[in-house]
Amino acid sequence: MKTLYLLLFHFAFISHLAFADIPLLTIEKIEAYTLYPENSFRIEANVDEDIIINPKDLAALKGLKIHHIDLVYTSYLGKKTFNQNAVNKQQIAKLKEVFPQAVSDAPTWKCIEQTGAKTNKEAKTYFHGFIVHFGPALDYQHLSTFFKPFQTPVKSFTVKANDGGNFDCGDGTTLKIGGNTVTHADGSPVNGDYTLQYKEFKDPSDILFSGIPMTFNNGRRDQNFSSVGMYEIRAEQDGKSLKMKAPAAVDFNCTKVDNGVGFYQMDDQSGKWSKKKDVAFRAPLKLLSKFQSKLAFDGIEFELNADIYNHYSEIQFNESCWDWVFKHFATHPELNAVLEKIDESNRTARMTIEPKQFTEMVADIIMEEKKAEMQRELERQIAEEKQRIAEWQEQERIRQEEERARLEKARQEDQRFGNTLLSEGIDEGHTYPALVKDLNSPGFGVYNCDQVYDLEQPLELSPVYVDENGTEIKNKHVVCVIDLNYNGSFSFHPNNITCSGKGRNVILLFTDNKDVYMLSEEKFNQLSLNNNMRPTFAMQNMTSVIKTSDDLKKYLKI
Questions:
Q1: Helices (H), 20-125
Q2: How far is CA 21 from each of CA 95, 177, 268, 396, rounded to the nearest angstrom?
Q3: Residues lower than pLDDT 70 in the chain
Q4: DSSP-derived 3-state class of residue 72
């Protein structure tokens, strides 16, 4: 008796291991499965019989991906009593054993229960087995290429590899990349000029045509992204992609200020996202206080007036102080490091430290100069040879010329920096409440500022797609679902899609030759989806209307 219990326990344990990776499946009930969907094939699989796959079907799969598998069976049991769920799991385990691609491609699964059979003889005439739905891999690599004709052009910048630079990407976003931070694919340094490319995606239309996946696995389950803005950075030289060895910094203007936003990076190969950090938005610009200081040294009067904001301080110099600061830029780089957005005409600059600290910095430099001057005076007094004095004077003349040259170069650099940060027509005082500063982008690729959410009242549908004349649409390639309640788009194999039962859903179907069909939000809401997992989508041909991302934006008014 103990042996029997041990054998039963061993069988139960092995069965648990075999079925542990098989989730609970959605069950669709229909009278009889008589369909032959496009881009699918059947595998007959009767209980207690070996599963044999037709070699022609395996050949048709070459270079393609299995997206979804349906397990089809009958509900009629007759005099038999067994656990249908356990039988389903056994059938799926048998298929996975003889069909490795059903595991490696990680398809979605569904059960289709046929309810029409009333006798054992009738049940035997029904199809029992699997429906395998396949097609091209609808990943980032494939879709970004497929949708290329619809995409908004990238913004390109010419960069000197040794210098790097700061680049205005529009709408308040700036990108900073350092000098000597870009390499070839083999790690060798890039010399000369290269092309830096920037693209951003801020609405469902741009996201759809980007081909970027919008799901994130949090370690337990997949969740959907609702984006407040994505961007992509690439670089190339002579048509060859480059790599980044030190992070670029992006000040990114998101679409809105919101809670629960994270910063994510996408793996180009897998399309999977990794979270880098939580996003903290800057508070709106606010004047906190004013500061005034006056200093007098050797007949020079320094007067500083500053407005202290929550993000920076803006300082106004009098003429004497302004001339002194510019004279000392070259010899004291610490001054240049704390002043930004220098305006020569108004003698103003933004300051990255407290005005009081700047005043103390100026006083310290003056005291150092006085000490140096006294030392030089002492040296002159103890100098015994006029030639030595003459040589020193010549050196001083050369130093002053070099200082003037460095000063001019510093002025030009500051002017170039100011021009780079400000786009044409933008007021320097313009603020961007949704601006996120210094997003550390460690490599060329795609980055996302996103909120995650769970799909509310999910619907798993296997639609039939027809045009305005009721004719079934052929050569279906990919279906994209936009829920206008969120900022995103989700791509599916046409035979099986998932959407929210409470969403503002717009469905777009693209054929192999890029014809575009749409089911509007209004038409979707008119569908009867209660216990109907195979609705007919009567779609409008939009091929002549939607040729670019901007066309879709205008049509959807987003």
A1: 55-60, 84-98, 101-104, 120-124
A2: 13, 45, 27, 80
A3: 1-24, 282-285, 297-299, 310-312, 336-337, 352, 383-386, 388-389, 392, 399-400, 403-433
A4: strand
CA-to-CA distance for 428 and 188, rounded, in angstroms?
A: 39
Contact present, 351 and 313 (Cβ < 8 Å) = yes
What's the CA gap between 435 and 118, in Å, rounded? Answer: 65
Strands 222-237 and 193-201: antiparallel
Residue 118 Cα distances to 47, 71, 114, 550, angstroms: 19, 20, 11, 55
From CA 555, how far away is CA 551, in angstroms rounded? 6
Q: Into which CATH architecture does domain 152-283+434-450 fall?
A: Sandwich (2.60)
Q: How many Cα atoms occupy the beta-carbon half-sphere of 64 within 13 Å?
A: 18
Q: What is the C-alpha separation between 523 and 508, in angstroms, rounded?
A: 12
pLDDT at position 284 is 62
Q: Interior CA angle at 489 toward 488 and 490, to 5°?
A: 130
User: Could you tell me the fold of the domain covering 14-135?
Assistant: 60s Ribosomal Protein L30; Chain: A; (3.30.1330)
User: To the nearest 10°, the Cα dihedral for 51, 52, 57, 63?
Assistant: 70
- CATH of range 456-556; options 1.10.3470, 2.60.40, 3.30.160, 3.30.70: 2.60.40
Nearest to 325 by CA among 291, 306, 348: 348
Virtual CA dihedral for 326, 332, 338, 344, nearest 10 degrees?
Answer: 10
Q: What is the rounded distance in angstroms from the CA atom of residue 467 to the CA atom of residue 475?
A: 13
Full-model pTM: 0.71
Start-end ranges of CATH 3.30.1330 in the chain?
14-135
Note the maximum CA span of the chain.
125
Coil, helix or strand for 322? helix
Task: List where CATH 2.60.220 sits in the chain.
Answer: 152-283+434-450
212 burial class (0-12, 13-18, 19+ CB within 10 angstroms)?
Answer: buried
Task: Describe the strand order of the beta sheet including 476-483 as a list of residue ranges.
Answer: 490-492, 476-483, 505-511, 516-519, 540-541
Tens-place pLDDT, residues 147-169? 999 999 999 999 999 999 999 99
